[in-house]
Amino acid sequence: MKRFGFEHFGDPKAFTTINAPAPQPKAGQVQLEVLGFGLNPYDASLRRGEQTSRPLKFPIVPGSDVVGRVSAIGEGVSDYALGDVVINYRPIGGYSEFVTASTSKIIKKPTAISFMTAAALPLVGIAAFSILTQLDLYAHDSLVIIGAGGGIGSVLVQLAKAQGVHVVAIAGLAHHDQLKALGADVILDDVEAQALQSHHYPTVVNVRFNGATTPLAQRLVTSGGKLLTSAYVDVPDGDYQKLALTKLAPTDVALAALVSTARAWGLSMTVGESLPFTLAGVRRGHELLEAGNTGGKLVVMQPDAVLNAAHVDRNLL
């Protein structure tokens, strides 16, 4: 099988094709034929050699987000059958034609989630669910989301609305139509957000990359309120409760919540570009990650003929 990884740190051209035997599932695992995988900023950081706290041996094959078809089943697995299409969140290794995964790290893909959304969803979806569970919100509570147009932010909007939360979404103008379709109650750009009443909102989440607009978040949160920042940045102390996305929710719990929301309400993500399942596609995806402003999540997908065959094999409600 083919994998896309690198033998040394560097720019996107560091990626190469690695030929390796297909991994075989152990007890409690399945083998997946990968139909598509998502590209994340973390993958680019890993390629640049910035993740020194997590030393890995070369060759390194990134990839946390996978949609795949069950192609072999390990001992003791009874909940999945050959041909099932599943969503998989994994620590690494998704840029491959085949992977193995524990059953606690996969869930069957419903028809309410497209193949591209399934490839884009796992990391940002689990992060959004983890944020929402920290906030302990109820129906009719208010939530301000700064960076609502991004991957985590847009999923957080959908999960919050499914719980009946009043969502104030702050994002660039390019995302406003999308946020309206997702059900956000109030949609503002950064300039308009400056006119919001200071210290008025009990729960404010900042999911902007690198914690940008932290001063705005500080100004909006009420005394005694909650301010959660997803980026690893130092947020100044204040008369509010500082929260951070320091730990993700259990994968099986988070994936189940995402699929449940998709079935009941729908769940979508903006895909900036779908790239071919080739070395050139991976390199191009990482060039786009380096350039920024991708317009949505980047995914690498198998050809339509492969996806259509998988869709016919398993069509789950």
Automatic annotation (TrEMBL):
User: Per UniProt, what is one GO molecular function of this protein?
Assistant: oxidoreductase activity
Enoyl reductase (ER) domain residues:
10-300
Specify the domain of life of the species encoding this protein.
Answer: Bacteria
Q: Which Pfam family would be a valid example here?
A: ADH_N
Q: Which UniProt keywords apply?
A: Membrane, Transmembrane, Transmembrane helix
Q: Membrane-spanning residues where?
A: 112-132, 138-157
Q: Mind telling me what this protein is named?
A: NADPH quinone reductase
* Provenance organism: Lacticaseibacillus manihotivorans DSM 13343 = JCM 12514
